[in-house]
Amino acid sequence: MTHRFELVETRAIPELNTEASLYRHPTGAQLMSLVNAEDENKVFGINFRTPPTDSTGIAHILEHSVLCGSDKYPVKEPFVELLKGSLKTFLNAFTYPDKTCYPVASQNLQDFHNLVDVYLDAVFHPRLTPEVLKKEGWHYEVEGDQLTYKGVVFNEMKGAYSSPERILGEAIQQGIFPDNTYGVESGGHPRHIPDLSWEQFESFHRDLYHPANALIWFYGDDPVEGRFEILESYLGQFEARRIDSAVAVQPHWSASRTVETTYAASDDDGEGGEEKKHYVAVNWLLEDGIDYGTRLGLQVLDHVLLGSSAAPLRKVLIESGLGEDLTGGGMETELRQLFFSAGLKGVKAADEGKVEGLVINTLTELARDGIDPETVKASLNTSEFRLRENNTGSYPRGLILMLRSLATWLYDGDPFEPLAFEAPLAALKERVAAGGYFEGLIEDHLLTNPHRTTVYVRPDPTQSEREEAEEKSRLAKVRETLSEADMERIAAEAVQLKERQETPDDPADLAKIPVLSRDDLERQIRKVPIERTEVAGARTFYHDLFTNGIVYIDVGFDLRTLPAELLPYVSLFGRCLLEVGTETEDFVRLSQRIGARTGGLWTGSILTNQRLGKTPVGYFFLRGKGMLEQVPDLLDIVRDVLLTTQLDNPARFLQMALEEKAGEEAGLIPGGHAVVNMRLKSHFDEVAWAVEQMEGVSYLFFLRELTKRVESDWSSVLAKLQAVRDHLVNRGTLLVNATFPESDRSAVEPHIETLVQSLPQSPVVTGAWSPQLRLADEGLTLPAQVNYVAKGGNLYDLGYELKGSVGVITKYLRNSYLWDHVRVQGGAYGAFCSFDHFTGLLVYASYRDPNLQGTVDAYDGAAAFLQNLDLPAEELTKSIIGTIGELDSYQLPDAKGYMSMVRELTGVDDEYRQQMRDAVLSTTAAEFREFGDALAKLNDVGRVVVLGSKDTIEEANSARGGWLDVLPVM
Ligand SMILES: [Zn+2]
User: Fold this and answer.
1) Which of 158, 659, 789, 895 could be stapled to 855 by a disulfide with Cβ–Cβ 3.0 to 4.6 Å?
2) Which of 629, 551, 623, 634 is nearest to 598 (CA)?
3) Which residues are CB-neighbours of 743 under 8 A, at least 6 positions away?
4) CA of residue 274 relative to chain centroid, distance
């Protein structure tokens, strides 16, 4: 097939192992095509400039809606069909303040092409109808004689605005950009979403989702011809058009401004509430059109100022004691103009006026007196290591590169510029070597820049009530204009909408969604090399993998040597190792040494059951990485911190404990589903109980008590920290996990040996924690307008025996029954269910959910749904493919090495994995029905944990005789 793309420019980018080409299509579409023969994780993305002019959430609702059926794929939710039955390594869509991105990724070529085709049809030919807007955006429902608002995005944004961090983030952005598109909320504010009309919505798509407004991205090892072919088949249907979607520049002003707003707080969080919960951030808008070299410099400056606990601006803010933790995002580089933001949260009312001066004075002193050269060296090394390692975690590399390229491309800049880093990095190093570089950046872009705001976000205990009343009165006003006939019509439309959602898609339409067949699936598990060995007597796992010159080493100690009461100290003990200082260097020097001489060092724990009911496994890890020549320094640091950390530093410890507490609190709403999941499991199982002590709501309660005790009784806290060290740091339980190529082994191993020999050896004592588990239904309250509802229990106790098919079935439940009942019909943002092979615990949990009892009822309905399921063969195949896709998810070498170790420790050997994979591949429809029988038994004995608003929880309690134990968490 011929295509009409014209090559604009090609550049080789050796540091990314790629050749990148920019093409232009006669319709105006632009294509960046990156050929990367080494990366099988292929990425496609189509991006549109979608700057909104109001806060109705138009771009965000459209993002949801185009994934609700298209001309070629006329089913309710092709996106969900892809979630069910693809080998995708990434599938999502994002709305930014000025763009909407539709990225997909897969390691399988056919699967990749399927995903691309469905996405292209979705964005160019969606079946937008008023009904889709109602479902994804907002609509009225009738409750009694009154109206209410419902809608997926409406509820999603209510959840978002329950988080003070989100309110702060919006106040920062909107305050500094009052005159352009960034002055409105692209996600949609719950107060403005109901202003969105169908006409606006429809024309937004017509105007902006056109090739002339599209920036298209391909990356990976797929053949280039295929890229042109599939694109031409869509773009060929369009004519060229001029679209003006450019993002206007925010003009600079000449005097600083103040922005003030509030968030909903409760008056009974047990901490004196509003007294300490103010947020303050100081923000500068940088000028437009900063060249890429300077941009890179500004990003390194961000690390210099805030990137580690020893970074000078962070350190001064934290040590001031004015707040509990840092806030503001540092240097923000994803919008048209960069901005810089720093401040504090957890500030007392009396102190909020002091933060602005502190930030400005600190920057002034740094610009005047100079930044410690060791700090600069450390930040430069860390930044360079990150660029070279290009470790994007679970995100495909090609996706991160796309987002980086869009930072200039979206504003008609050079899309290649943010990709190649060698030349700008070399130039940056030269400028830094000449001296005074970062001091100059602070002076020029911040201190002498009058476009500054200071944002105050204050707690308001009446806000929830007030907002609810506002919403009610707005609905009441609408109600007044409606006749009884209108009300009947609205009620009928709502019923219709529900019915439409409940009506299954026509199987003939479903069959149009392209899927792989079972024959396309790899039957064999993917193996990671592991050698079980010993170094100087220490148990060692070694993984021979290509790592691009980097050495990854994890050093672990057995957590089960700790008495139960010490478990909540582990995370802070880990921070002490890296952020307090040793006998020979204070924490600034230590942090500089880590930054300058390694690729990074951090701590983490695993705590899990084993297969076959064997004793639990728990390890505390120091995890490090570096280039081969950095290994001696890396391991020296590991030894120094393990042996000589100066734990007796109450001032520093208190800062870290407050940061940790603030972090736990800030995580409650965005991570509510994980909070209830963890809490629920903790009632059933010793290991889950221990995890909750270390990470859950119990940990938050512990931190609140601990921060008080640091001040009243430091010696008792110190004794605990010393006890953690004495128990943990023991050569007798040492475990080393190492990932790097065999060729580097002789260079690395002697250094591991030296480390092992330097550690103390004492008798190993492990015991059970034997907690008093208490089966309870709980209602954890906080000031939020959404809930997180979990229900679960132990299926093994109810007679279920493990089968590999369980993963296929729970995946199917998530993407069909739970999606339909909890999201589509219930209006929650999402719901999932998970089954733990080791313990037999099955848990359902919902996310940003307006309901409570209704969701529990939906969970209980899952059993009957499965029992009566007449599962079409194609649906079964999809679910099997999707499950295999999860099993084969893409991992970078460090993650492979770590995962392989976890499998080894938990008894998940290759034979067992192959057995489970075989079982997944041969899952039958009968197994779904059988599993329904197992779930049915859970309905009566399962327990419920809810995190949500006090009102909802109290309502549920009065409806069912106080079944939930109420526990306020905020
Ligand atoms: Zn959304």
Assistant:
1) 789
2) 634
3) none
4) 28
Ligand 1 centre to CA of 852 (Å) is 21
The residues pairing with 100 across neighbouring beta strands, listed in sequence order, are 48, 95
Measured CA to CA, the distance from residue 516 to residue 536 in angstroms comes to 49
Alpha-carbon span 449 to 793, nearest angstrom: 58
Residue-level pLDDT at 827: 85
955 catalytic per annotation: no
Q: Which two tokens stand for residue 655?
A: 């800062």
Return the residue matching tokens 């190792």. 577
Per-residue pLDDT at 272 exceeds 90: no
Alpha carbon of 174 to ligand 1 centroid (Å)? 20
Cα of 866 vs centre of ligand 1, distance in Å, is 29
> Is 749 a residue of the active site?
no
Distance of alpha carbon 782 from alpha carbon 700, whole angstroms: 13
Cβ–Cβ < 8 Å for 55, 188: yes
Catalytic residue among 77, 81, 136, 389: 136
Q: Look at residue 274 and tell me whether its pLDDT is greater than 60.
A: no
The helix/strand/coil state of 320 is: coil
Distance 156 CA to ligand 1 centre (A): 6
pLDDT band at 762 (very low <50, low <70, confident <90, very high): very high
pLDDT for 628 beyond 50: yes
Q: Which residues pair with 618 in a beta bridge?
A: 607
CA distance 339 to 342: 10
CB 672 within 8 Å of CB 788: yes
Phi-psi region of 25 (alpha: psi -120 to 50; beta: other; left: phi over 0): beta
Alpha carbon distance 386, 378 (integer Å): 12
What digits encode the pLDDT tens for the residues 55-76? 999 999 999 999 999 999 999 9
Query: Under DSSP, is residue 642 helix (H, G, I), strand (E, B) or coil?
Result: helix
Distance CA 432, CA 45 (A): 36
Tell me how far the alpha carbon of residue 839 lies from the centroid of ligand 1, in angstroms.
34
Sign of CA dihedral 481, 484, 485, 487: positive
Cβ-count burial 510-521 (b if 16+ within 10 Å, e if not): beebbbbeeeeb
Beta strands in 628-689 (DSSP E): none
Å from CA of 154 to ligand 1 middle:
9
CB 758 within 8 A of CB 780: no
| Of 799, 810, 870, nearest in space to 835 by CA | 810
What is the per-residue pLDDT across 541-569, written as a single tens digit (0 to 9) for each?
Answer: 999 999 999 999 999 999 999 999 999 99
Q: How far is CA 306 from the centre of its chain?
A: 21
Cα–chain-centroid distance for residue 944? 25
Contact between 967 and 268 under an 8 Å Cβ cutoff? The reply is no
Given a contact cutoff of 8 angstroms between Cβ atoms, the answer to whether 900 and 541 are in contact is yes
387 touches 303 (CB < 8 A): no
The alpha carbon of 60 and the centre of ligand 1 are apart by a number of angstroms equal to: 6
Which residue, 699, 693, 618, 692, is CA-closest to 660?
699
Q: What is the pTM of this model?
A: 0.94
**Residue from 878, 885, 862 nearest 507 by CA:** 878
The secondary element (H helix, E strand) that includes residue 348 is: none
Give residue 161 CA to ligand 1 midpoint distance, Å.
Answer: 13
Nearest to 940 by CA among 831, 772, 774, 777: 777
Which CA distances in Å does 449 have to 255, 259, 297, 301, 330? 9, 18, 17, 16, 16
Q: Tokens 């390229």 appear where?
A: 405
3-class SS at 969?
A: coil
| pLDDT for position 176 | 98
132-188 pLDDT per residue, tens: 999 999 999 999 899 999 999 998 999 899 899 999 999 999 999 999 999 999 999
Q: What DSSP character marks residue 849? A: B
Rounded distance from Cα 25 to ligand 1 centre (Å): 31
Q: One of 9, 38, 40, 63 is an active-site residue; which one? A: 63
